[in-house]
Amino acid sequence: MDAYSSFLAHTPWAPGWGNHEYLEEDRGNRLANITAGVIAERRLADGAATRWAYSVEIGLLHFLHLDLSPYWCRFSGCIGVDTCGVSDEWVVDASSDDPTTRYNFTGYRETVMAYARADLAAIDRSKTPWVIASAHYPLYETYDDVANQARAQNEADFGARGRGRLSNDPAPSKAQAIADFEPLLAEFGVDMFFAGHDHNYETTWPVYQGKVVQASYKDPKAPIHILSGSAGPPEWDKFAAAQTWTREPRLQVNSYSRLTLFNASVALFEQVANNNGTIVDSFTITQTRMDRSAPFPCFE
């Protein structure tokens, strides 16, 4: 972080937690210490803000960040690898070797969901017409489970894939995260969901509950999902077959994302190559809905 200190001292930034922040018994505390000032500032403005869920407003943008690590990091042996993506606050029985009794997933889940709903409901879209939600983990991805198994031997937390199924008793899984948060994105007209985790780059058409709503970005009627995890990964994640909601290109190019909000109705997204600044992908979003806070039609 020292290399970024002079830049971050004069630039708005929103830190986010993922599985790497929980490795080696760190439990997310190292990043929490580095970003303590940012989170403390948010708490002064919003007493409910925490490191697991908080928001910032920058110009025309309202940005909501969620730490969804407990949903993704539940796998065999996760306690000794990345504490199952759970921070100290949600440990209820440190002597237990069973994640279901060691951690209070229900309390964490209810806290983050409640914050997300209250935050999105309170946005003044006349001031911040554009809304982005973000987490380290993608809700939509064409990750190839089989082809990427070769990385398992090199990464202790390779199991942080959110595997599991929905059940009547909510338990950590990607499926549960989608069930918990995707409806909120549609209900409150969230424009985009940004994520990383996978070491590649891909985007979706406006999509809801696995179905393409439209194959264009003119007046999107559902959230757009952007997976930008290619800034500098040590190894690439391979893609599986494209889905109906997949938008090409899908890339394995060292690159970062850049979003320009020109006004309340026009935004330009660009994916920029690290080495020479070449634009390797781009698209324009136009949104002319009169009531931006109203649910997308797909939710109704």
Brief rundown of the structure:
The chain is α/β, with parallel strands linked by helices and 300 residues long. Helix content is 21%, strand content 21%. A hairpin with a 2-residue loop joins β6 (207-208) and β7.
Q: On the 0-100 scale, what is the average pLDDT?
A: 92
Low-confidence stretches: none
> Helix amount, in percent?
10-25%
What would you call the shape?
globular
Name the structural class. alpha/beta
Radius of gyration: 19 Å
Total number of helices: 8
Spatial separation of the terminal alpha carbons:
44 Å
Q: How many β-strands, per DSSP?
A: 12
H/E series: HHHEEHHHHEHEEEEEEEEE
Strand order of the largest sheet: 1-2-3-4-8-5-9
Q: How would you describe this structure to a colleague?
A:
The mean pLDDT is 92. The strands form 3 sheets. Strands 1-2-3-4-8-5-9 form a 7-stranded mixed β-sheet, covered by helices on one side. The protein has a 3-stranded antiparallel β-sheet with strand order 10-11-12, with no helix packed on it. The protein starts with a helix and ends in a 14-residue tail after the last strand. The longest helix has 17 residues. Helices cover 21% and strands 21% of the residues. The protein has 300 residues and is an alpha/beta fold. The protein has 8 helices and 12 strands.
